[in-house]
Specification:
Mean pLDDT of chain B: 78
Mean pLDDT of chain A: 86
Distance between the termini of chain B: 24 Å
Shape of chain B: elongated
Order of helices and strands of chain A: EEEHEEHEHHHEHEHEEHEHEEHEHHH
Number of domains of chain A: 2
Helix content of chain A: 25-40%
Oligomer: heterodimer
Strand order of the largest sheet of chain A: 6-7-8-3-9-10
Number of domains of chain B: 2
Number of strands of chain A: 14
Number of helices of chain B: 15
Bound molecules: adenosine-5'-triphosphate, magnesium ion
Strand content of chain A: 25-35%
Chain lengths: ~350, ~400
């Protein structure tokens, strides 16, 4: 087996004049979990749809499992599994009937299919629910069936487009564990899109940060974070109970400050460079009569990386799309829309 | 991916769709209620015979006595005089009763009037004379129209004939003359035995309409809905040929439509007393052919619209006029000229015409071969265009 699972070269997708994917080139190695991280509308889903042959690229080319997406669509489809943003499940069919249908579409021999379905149901603890209509399931249960549906044909490459969207923390963790297990046990290459930074951080071997249809950075999570520390940027978190907009703009206007973001009513997060960064920020807050309850120099997260690289936040629009997303409470109060 | 696995995939997709339909209670109720509602509503609202003109009618005067002494000649002259005023019929003379029937069967005429061979002699001897109206049961309105006309002629002539009879036969007792005031015995017979009834006319039309509309609305719905739900991606991302997906959808929707068609047929027979003269198998065959002729249109619409809502809207706009123009409720020959022209371009027109001939006239395949060929042609052309469009649309 080739050690390159996916190779994309200058992929472009235009919808009329709007460029959704802008000359993307990347390689995904066989056996890795490769993350696409980016805000709404970054072009993650569009890219995945092109790789799954659901949508033709406007320009550029790509090979998936060694086959050309434009000319060998059928061969590509034999080797991939897809968990898309919308569930691929029929509500009036039972879990078993759904799996049966897709198994038959992959031409899996009857007996092998029966065993495979039983085995997969067991893995996600859903044997008891096999003969119930999907429509009666909770979102978490549906998603478990949806994910094993994509595994019926034992794909070499599995596409997971926001697989934990709308799930509660417990289901989210289950899906994450399961994703890791598929990757480790079967050696399946996984392409994962998400805008949950923490998810990408814990799951992915490599992450490409996409914004406006372009890859702004592509590396391992730890290397990505070094972009910040290596650039001598400090991430400072302050708890100031009497914070005011004036204070924030004062900090913003400091020469050492790169960005300031308000996390909630009292917490702000400052990216600032230089040895005096911390002192300068403290002085500014104090001289503006701000009370500092606590101040930390924190480890940068992928979110900070994103902010540093793009100058804007990932979560700007995310909060109104997903209400159950973890960490939402920390960021939910401030929803600005992103205008193009 | 061979043809066999392609067909297997199509059948699995159809199985899925039918399972889905069968588990949708409300949908099932509607599936059964819709044809019932259609039949009932249409049957009671539409029987009317106003506004007909120039209905082609064959006239056979078989009276043994011709020439000056013939009373039938007078009868015909009277009829023509009246018809010139109203312009309802377009009379043409034929030689025999058999000609009348064959002309009606091959569509040259819609009805016929046969004057019996003893017309003059019966009248002269004070008996009743026979006039038979032969009508095409597939068009009941014509029958009642002609009957009305003849009754008028007879009412006018009756007095004259009575006077004539009295003058000729002085010695005839008075009661004979009185009997001659209404001397004609008019019988209405169809080409096939049985009563003419409007349901017999509309039932084939509704059957064709229900099946084909069911497909036309069901198909775009089935595909657009899945596209919007995102489930279509599951099939498209699997090694399944696009044709299998379409095929599965078509099989499922056709089955659904055929079930409705069979419900209409059963209701017509059981509740509305329709007598099916032709073969049921042929009826089902025509329904399937009708479906085939329209499948392409359904797919085309699906391909050119991105949401279920638009698809449904376009379907409604297309199907509503189609229903009226294709002769479901009124014979096409009674429509204004431009509508008749439009009707020629609707597959439904031919399906309904063929169905009507089989149900009402009891004809076999030879008599409807033109309809069959035209339907087939529609099917091939629309389907080829549709497949190209669909392939393109799926890549958007
Ligand atoms: N079929 C389409 N027609 C027109 N525009 C489209 C279409 N599909 C996507 N887009 C646009 O392309 C851009 C990228 O969309 P895409 O769905 O790939 O983003 P994403 O990164 O998956 O975002 P999200 O996090 O919301 O899922 C968006 O601005 C979207 O509006
Ligand atoms: Mg997306």
């Amino acid at each position: 087996m080739d050690d390159i699972a996916i190779k994309a070269t200058n992929l472009v997708k235009k919808f009329r004049d709007f460029v959704a994917v802008d000359h993307l080139s990347f390689e995904v190695k066989t056996g890795e979990i490769f993350g696409f991280l980016g805000p709404n509308g970054a072009g993650k889903t569009t890219t995945i749809r092109m790789l799954c042959t659901l949508s033709g690229p406007t320009q550029g080319s790509a090979t998936v499992a060694g086959f050309d997406i434009a000319h060998q669509g059928d061969r590509v489809r034999e080797h991939i599994g897809l968990v898309s943003e919308k569930m691929i499940m029929y509500d009036r069919l039972t879990a078993h009937e759904n799996l049966r249908l897709f198994g038959e579409l992959y031409d899996i021999p009857r007996n092998a299919l029966r065993e495979r379905i039983d085995e997969l149901l067991k893995v996600v603890n859903m044997e008891k629910w096999a003969d119930q209509q999907i429509g009666t399931f909770s979102t978490g249960m549906k998603q478990r069936i949806n994910v094993i549906r994509a595994l019926l044909n034992e794909p070499e490459i599995l596409f997971l487009d926001e697989p934990t969207l709308g799930l509660d923390p417990q289901s989210t963790n289950e899906i994450r564990d399961f994703t890791r297990r598929i990757n480790e046990d079967a050696g399946t290459t996984i392409i994962l899109t998400t805008h949950a930074m923490a998810e990408a951080d814990v799951l992915c071997d490599r992450i490409s940060i996409v914004d406006y249809g372009k890859i702004v950075a592509l590396d391992t999570p730890s290397n990505l974070k070094k972009v910040i520390t290596g650039a001598d940027t400090n991430v400072i978190e302050l708890d100031v109970p009497n914070i005011t907009p004036t204070l924030i703009s004062d900090i913003q206007s400091l020469s050492c400050t790169q960005t300031v973001t308000a996390e909630d009513e009292t917490h702000i997060r400052v990216h600032a460079s230089g040895d005096e960064a911390c002192d300068n920020v403290i002085d500014t807050v104090r001289s503006g009569a701000g009370q500092i309850r606590s101040i930390h120099n924190v480890e940068p997260t992928l979110e900070d990386v994103f902010l540093y690289l793009t100058g804007h936040e990932v979560r700007e629009q995310v909060a109104d799309k997903v209400t159950t997303q973890e960490g939402h409470s920390r960021h939910g109060s401030r929803v600005r829309s992103r205008i193009r | 991916m061979g043809v066999r696995s392609g067909i297997r995939h199509a059948l699995w997709i159809a199985w899925k769709d039918l399972l889905d339909i069968s588990r949708n209670r409300m949908g099932l109720v509607m599936l059964i209620l819709m044809p019932l509602f259609m039949m009932g509503m249409v049957g009671y609202i539409f029987p009317s015979n106003s506004g007909m003109s120039n209905v082609p009618v064959a006239l056979a005067n078989l009276d043994a006595v011709q020439g000056n002494a013939s009373l039938s000649t007078k009868f015909v002259a009277q009829l023509e005089a009246l018809n010139n005023k109203t312009g309802m019929m377009d009379l043409s003379t034929v030689g025999s009763a058999a000609d009348v029937k064959s002309n009606i069967q091959n569509g040259q005429q819609s009805a016929g009037i046969i004057i019996g061979s003893n017309f003059t002699s019966n009248l002269n001897s004070g008996k009743q004379a026979d006039v038979t109206i032969v009508n095409d049961q597939s068009n009941p309105q014509t029958a009642s129209l002609i009957q009305t006309q003849l009754t008028q002629v007879i009412e006018q002539m009756g007095t004259q004939t009575a006077t004539y009879g009295l003058n000729q036969t002085y010695k005839t007792p008075l009661n004979y003359s009185l009997a001659q005031v209404a001397p004609y015995n008019i019988q209405t017979t169809g080409i096939v035995p049985g009563q003419t009834n409007y349901f017999e006319f509309v039932a084939p039309g509704i059957m064709g309409m229900v099946v084909m509309m069911s497909l036309m609305t069901g198909l775009p719905h089935a595909i657009s809905f899945e596209r919007e739900m995102g489930t279509l991606d599951g099939m498209l991302a699997a090694p399944v040929h696009r044709m299998s997906i379409l095929g599965g959808k078509v099989i499922a929707q056709t089955t659904r439509g055929m079930i409705q068609g069979i419900i209409v047929l059963t209701l017509s027979i059981v509740l509305f007393g329709v007598v099916v003269q032709g073969s049921i198998a042929l009826i089902l065959g025509i329904l399937l052919l009708g479906v085939f002729s329209l499948v392409g249109l359904g797919i085309l619409i699906t391909s050119f619209t991105s949401t279920e809502e638009t698809a449904t809207m376009i379907m409604m706009t297309l199907t509503f006029p189609m229903m009226f123009l294709s002769g479901v409720f009124f014979p096409i020959s009674q429509m204004p000229q431009f509508m008749q022209v439009i009707a020629q371009f609707l597959p439904l027109t031919y399906a309904i015409s063929a169905l009507r001939k089989v149900v009402v006239l009891g004809v076999g395949i030879p008599a409807i071969s033109t309809d069959i060929i035209i339907l087939f042609g529609f099917g091939i052309v629309l389907l080829s265009a549709a497949l190209l469009a669909f392939e393109r649309a799926m890549k958007r």
